[in-house]
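Below is a filled-in request sheet from our internal design queue. Each sheet records the structural input a requester submitted and the sequence that came back. We keep these sheets so that new team members can see what a complete request looks like end to end.

REQUESTER: design group, bay 2
PRIORITY: normal
MODE: inverse folding
CHAIN LENGTH: 103
BACKBONE (tokenized):
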């Protein structure tokens, strides 16, 4: 992999109830802690539809996750600037190149 991205857990529409039921069934001892952390990221709600906020969250924990993401990308040499495209290896097709296939 050369690039990495992240999206903070989102719970739009019916996904919210499915996730909460799964959390209760699978990790009942951690459910409240997970809900508390998510609501800290979402301004006291489990979801936030605002563009620019919904994918990353906001506040202290969003900053912590973002710092960890950036440090990990640096450590793994991810998201480096891309090399400039080189066009010297390409040539223009001859006149009527592909059109000659139909004639």
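RETURNED SEQUENCE:
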């Amino acid at each position: 992999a050369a690039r990495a991205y992240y999206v903070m857990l989102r719970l739009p529409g019916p996904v919210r109830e499915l996730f909460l039921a799964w959390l209760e069934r699978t990790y009942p001892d951690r459910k409240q802690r997970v809900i508390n952390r998510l609501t800290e990221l979402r301004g006291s709600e489990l979801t936030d539809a605002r563009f620019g906020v919904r994918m990353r969250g906001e506040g202290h924990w969003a900053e912590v996750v973002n710092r960890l993401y950036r440090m990990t990308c640096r450590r793994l040499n991810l998201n480096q600037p891309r090399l400039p495209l080189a066009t010297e290896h390409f040539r223009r097709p001859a006149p009527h190149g592909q059109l000659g296939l139909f004639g």
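SHEET NOTES:
- The mean pLDDT is 89.
- Residues 35 and 64 are 17 Å apart (CA to CA).
FILED BY: M.R.
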